[in-house]
Structure formats: C-alpha cells, structure tokens
Amino acid sequence: MDMAKRMAKEGMGEGTVIIAGEQTAGRGRLGRKWLSPPGGSLSLSIILRPTLPQLPQLNMAACLATVQSIEKVSGLKPTIKWPNDVLLNGKKVSGILMENIFDGGELKATILGIGINAKFDALAFTEISAIATSLSTESGREISPEEILPSLLEEFEQIYQELQGGRKIYERWLARVETLGKLVRVKSGDTIEEGYAESINPNGSLILRRLDGSLITMVTGESQG
After folding, report:
1. Residue 30 has pLDDT above 50, yes or no
2. Alpha carbons 109 and 28: distance in angstroms, whole number
3. Among the residues of 46-134, which ranges form H helices?
4. pLDDT digit string (tens) for 96-122?
C-alpha cells in the first residue's frame, strides 16, 4: 500500500498492480495487522483514479470481484461480511482495504488493497486461528496465490469498467452480503452499537436496529457476530 501510494503520487497510471510475495508489516482496516506469510497469501494493491461519487461502490466492486474469483477457482461459496470482509464457512478468507490520496480536497487516486488467504494454515497462528481460514483449507486441495491472481484481476477489471460506465453493482453486491438480519455489534471509533442489521444503503452505510427498536445509520465500522 505504501509503495503504491508513492507510485500514484509520482503519476503512475491507473491499473498498476503491486504484488507482495511477503509482507512484514501488512495492515488491515482500523490499524489491524494483516498476517501474510511467505507464499501463503495473495497480497496486492491496485492504483485507481476513480471519481469521488464512485468511492462507495469501489469497495463493493472489490468484494464482489473477490467472491466471484474464489468461486471460479475453488468452487466454494464465499459470502461478504459488511463492510469489507469475505468469509468461507463463517471465517475470514479475504479482506479489502482502501486508502485515498487527496490534494486540496480533490481526489487524486485510490489505493485498493486485497488480501486473500490462499494456502497457509490459519491454525498455526493462534491469534487468528478461531476467525480465519484459507482457500486450501476449505477446498481440501492446495490453491496457490498464483492460481487465483489472474481470475481476481480479470473479475475486478470487468466490474470496475462497469462502474466507470455508470452501471450500478449495489444489488449484485447486496445479494452476497451475509450480515443482513443478523444480531451484530458494530464498532465505530470508540462507540459500540448492538442490534440487528436491518438494511444497507447504496452508499454502503448500514442501518442498524438497536435492541430498543430505534434505528441508527453506521457509515463505517467493524461488524462482529
């Protein structure tokens, strides 16, 4: 992500992909660490130059492309956990990270990071063993980062072109989201809200029905449960 940011600021063109064979300081959303052992995960960043109105659906595009590429390569049926995780059998197999570059209030570039656990054994990492998995673990055969890479890039390019052409992907993305209807705890900053995920707006914000029946819109956050 850091290298992609530097390259974007230097004028590198849209669609440039930076792939890390190993990450020693991988990061996820909210400052979390993203574990990426050598050869075990696909970790890439893409330089994009979207318009500001496209940003809400860009995260959707990345999640949708990841789900579709996993299906094609493995035959598995992943789901999306709001706002940016991809799950297999309830465990995290992929995460999406977006970081924007602004200059004087103008969006200059977006760095889209995608991490997919391909063939490492999550059980070997005690800090994530209960919540993470990999394509190889779930499919019962070895799936390397190199195997899923072409499919992921192909799927994302197609969806991103649709987005640039004015097509909406919200409905297709929403059909893959498993969070709706569930009792969740959403952490946003220092605030934690608990309730049922009632709906998700086209801008990606979550409508949460608190246990007392009141509604609250969560623009961003991390859903648990």
Report:
1. no
2. 19
3. 55-74
4. 999 999 999 899 999 999 999 999 888
By C-alpha distance, which of 153, 152, 151, 156 is closest to 57?
A: 156
CATH of the domain at 151: 3.30.930.10
Residues 6 or more apart whose Cβ sits within 8 Å of residue 160: 48, 58, 61
Residue 18 near residue 113 (C-beta atoms within 8 A): no
Claim to verify: residue 124 and residue 142 sit in the same structural domain = yes
Query: Does residue 180 register a pLDDT over 90?
Result: yes
pLDDT at 27: 52
Are 63 and 96 in contact by the 8 Å Cβ rule? The answer is yes
Question: Same structural domain for residues 105 and 216?
Answer: no
- Say if residues 124 and 137 touch (Cβ distance below 8 Å): no
Helix (H) or strand (E) holding 8: helix 2-9
Residues 97 and 198 reside in one and the same domain = no
67 and 129 together in one domain:
yes
Give the C-alpha separation, 137 to 64, whole Å: 21
What is the span of the domain harbouring residue 205? Answer: 183-224
pLDDT at 88 over 50: yes
Answer yes or no: do 215 and 163 share one domain.
Answer: no
- Both tokens of residue 174? 């929403």
